[in-house]
Amino acid sequence: MQISLWRRLFTFTLPYKAELWVMVVAGSVTALMEMAYPLITKWLIDDVDANGQEADLFFWAMVYLGTCFLMAVSIGSFIWMTSKIRVYASYDIRKAAFANLQNLSFSFFDYRPVGWLMARMTSDCERLTNILAWGLLDLIWGSAVMLGMTVAMLVMNWKLALLVLAIVPFLTWVSIKFQRTILGSARAVRRTNSRITGAYTQGIMGVLTSKTFSREAPNASEFRHLTGDMYIASVRNLTLSAIYIPIILIMSSLAVGLTLAVGGSDMLVGIVEAGTLVAFMMFARHFFDPVEVMGYWFAEMQMAQASAERVLSLIDAEPEIKDSDSVSNAVRIHRSTPQRETRAADGGPVDIHEVELVNVNFAYNTTVPVLRDINLTARKGETIAIVGPTGSGKSTLVNLVCRFYQPTSGQVRIDGIDYRNRSLRWLQSNLGVVLQNAHVFRGTVLENIRYGRLTASDSDVIEAAETVGAHEFINALENGYRTDVGEDGDMLSAGQKQLVSFARAILADPQILVMDEATSSVDTVTEAKIQRSLGQVLSGRISFVIAHRLSTIRNADRIVVLIDGQISEIGDHAELIARGGHYANLYYQQSLQEATRDWPSNRANDQTEDGEDLVEPSPA
């Protein structure tokens, strides 16, 4: 077991020293009260044996009641304090992990599924804080009980004490061994249960697809297989528990039996008093409870080491993309300067006039290049459209501009300065990004649009929505801008989500605007409205537009054609059409497809109500 790992986690409880001290004191008092019961019983029996009817039973009753009262107070105190420590530590661990996740680069999330991250933040944190709080408490309580009982038994009768203590090593080994096996079995049950829950959820959410492809029978068969695994894992877990508990009872009963046999013989010859024998039997019966409990937590700590490593890996992970030491130092210096409001966070210019990619190459790993020899300049007020087949590197290129990733080689310059020498937060605070799969947060439409600029007034939000053509559909919602969009925006269609995301980006008033298929899910009428307002939206900004529908980017200042990660063509629409290259071929293909798609409706418009052609037929 890695002690350093648990020492690191234990530091999350140190800010709560008052609660820790109360927990330690309360746990120790509880242990002392548990030791007191056998001793009170011994003294009562000895008093009755010595004084008969003269024994003061009322006094002993009051002593017993006082002990019960102290026990109740101490138990209540340590449960309260332990629960507080558990909640506080859980909050601090999750806060530290989440705060670090916000600063990590996109590459960190490329190979880590959302489910994996959620498990670290939820079940793993829950497991670790249970160990930190309740495991620590049981360690304090168990150590105090065993130490106190050992001292008491050795003082009363060392020979009987050694009989009881002789069983401890074997019982400790059995307890740890079984608890580790039982915990492993319990993990298997929980893993299988998670798979069943996932299958159940998928079956409900994908019921339309299942019925479409007649997958009901195979799905039911897979579910039966999972429930069969659950049955096997559950039976094994219950069997192990059923074996373990009797072993503990047998061992504790063996200790009581040995105490009774040896102590009873000594009592008959007057070596041991009756009160001492009864106290020893009570000690022997309860002495092994802490062994069982601490064995459980020891096994749990061993099993939870992987969880501890995973959670700490989130807290300790370093972002691949971050400010250099010189930039961080410039940011610190700028905070103390009186002109900080007129300069960027790093002390540089606030405005962005030009973004330039110089000999940029990029690969998500070292073997497969995604972009090669990219040279491109975008100036303020220009709109750069990026087109190309799927997988050509269009989204990767704009991700490099946004510094979500950094070039493997080459430079991205802002006004002639490598953007690695500018503040990352400053750059990304000047970005507006509208994605094809727009994300909408839980909350109202108003709150989602205002996410682009938290200080914006309601009128600013409405103006942004009107600019992108979202105002009409928002007003049609039940509560207008106050409508709750549901989890992940489930109450909105894909096109409505895009419009909300578009309005959010416009409200931020970014210097660099990136639109990645920003209108792919909206209807043609709404898209036409957006196209009419794009001149106002794009004015005065550096804009990058990724589009598959080439008709939407005809007015771009330059169109960049990417093929296999390289720039194949660049120019405006007229130049590329005249050149007759890949863009021209793609444009004519799309135009033909759109004309073919629209032909039936156009044909209908060219006919009279009785079906006769309005166009004069050509002569035979």
Describe the fold and architecture.
Helix content is 63%, strand content 10%. With 620 residues, it is of the alpha/beta class. The chain folds into two domains: 314 residues, ABC transporter type 1, transmembrane domain (ABC transporter transmembrane region fold, Up-down Bundle), CATH 1.20.1560; 125 residues, Rossmann fold. The strands form two sheets. Strands 6-7-8-3-9-10 form a six-stranded mixed sheet. A four-stranded antiparallel sheet has the order 2-1-4-5, covered by helices on one side. A hairpin with a 2-residue loop joins strand 4 and strand 5. Helix 2 packs parallel to helix 5, helix 2 runs antiparallel to helix 10 and helix 17 crosses helix 19. The longest helix is centred in the middle third of the chain and has 53 residues. The N and C termini lie far apart (95 Å). The C terminus is likely disordered.
Radius of gyration: 37 Å
What ranges have pLDDT less than 50 throughout 5 or more consecutive residues? 607-620
Q: CATH architecture of the largest domain, please?
A: Up-down Bundle
Structural class: alpha/beta
What share of residues are in beta strands? 5-15%
**Strand numbers in spatial order across the main sheet:** 6-7-8-3-9-10
The CATH first-level class of the largest domain comes to Mainly Alpha
- Percent helix, as a range, is 55-70%
DSSP helical segment count: 22
User: Average pLDDT across residues?
Assistant: 81
Overall spatial form? elongated
How many β strands by DSSP? Answer: 10
Oligomer: single chain
* Termini gap: 95 Å
